[in-house]
Amino acid sequence: MAASNTSRSLAGRLQAFWNHPAGPKTIHFWAPTFKWCITIANIADFQRPADFISYPQQIAVTATGLIWTRFSTQINPVNYNLLAVNAFMAATGLYQLSRKIAHDQSTSKGGGKEAAE
């Protein structure tokens, strides 16, 4: 009996997800889903040396994340996929900017490669 209720509940949830205004039948689902690729690429760049980080690129990533995180809470219905991807985008951009700033400050104080040369 419990398995029957669970399967009906799961089927109902899947149907609700499928038919949601921001569900997989709409661009409102797929655009933020593919935007995760940018965030994942930014996370992969955490392993790269900080001197390869671009200020304009990371400022754009951070600004986009912050602006669209706010926007995703104002639209109806609230698109939680859009909210999540942009919050992570802003967070990864801020982290990369902090790495670049710390790197630039350490090299300008004579602790970097430029001072040794």
Features:
5 helices, mainly alpha, 76% helix
Description of the structure:
The protein is an all-alpha fold and 117 residues long. It is 76% helix and 0% strand. It is elongated and about 70 Å long.
Oligomer type: single chain
Approximate helicity band: over 70%
Based on DSSP secondary structure assignment, what is the total number of beta strands? 0
Average pLDDT number: 88
- Compute the separation of the termini in Å: 76 Å
Q: Give the CA-based shape.
A: elongated
Summarize the biggest pleated sheet: none
| Rg calc | 21 Å
Percent of sequence in beta strands: under 5%
> What is the structural class?
mainly alpha
Provide the low-confidence segments as ranges: none
Order of helices and strands: HHHHH
Total helices: the number is 5
Concise description?
The protein is mostly helical and 117 residues long.
Sequence-ordered SSE layout with sheet pairings:
Layout: H1 2-19, H2 27-44, H3 55-74, H4 80-108, H5 113-116
